[in-house]
Design goal:
Elements lengths: L1 E3 L4 H18 L3 H11 L10 H22 L6 E3 L13
Antiparallel strand pairs: 1-2
Helix pairs in contact: 1-3, 2-3
Length: 94
């Protein structure tokens, strides 16, 4: 999920599609990329064997920001790219 305070649904959708395209083009699961980036935070230098995965996360975020600014102009949005799990539906059937 991409969040940008003050952005409308069309802007958010454009940002999310841009980020998703990065993950698809890299052939990496967004959860893997996010976890790698999280683990890499705080490390000194880029010596992590997961650097490529973490870089995909950062690239997805940059592409999402570019998409929203292309759509909405140069509005100074506060942006964030986050992963969320969609709630699963529970069936009443056994």
């Amino acid at each position: 999920m991409f969040e940008a305070s003050g952005a409308n649904a069309v802007d958010i959708a454009a940002a999310q599609m841009a980020a998703w395209a990065v993950f698809e083009n890299a052939g990496i699961d967004p959860w893997v990329a996010a976890a790698a980036a999280f683990r890499q935070e705080g490390e000194i230098g880029d010596v992590s064997p997961e650097k490529a995965d973490a870089d995909v996360w950062r690239d997805a975020y940059e592409q999402a920001k570019r998409a929203i600014y292309r759509n909405a102009g140069d509005a100074p949005f506060d942006t964030d790219l986050r992963l969320i799990r969609e709630p699963t539906q529970v069936s009443a059937e056994n």
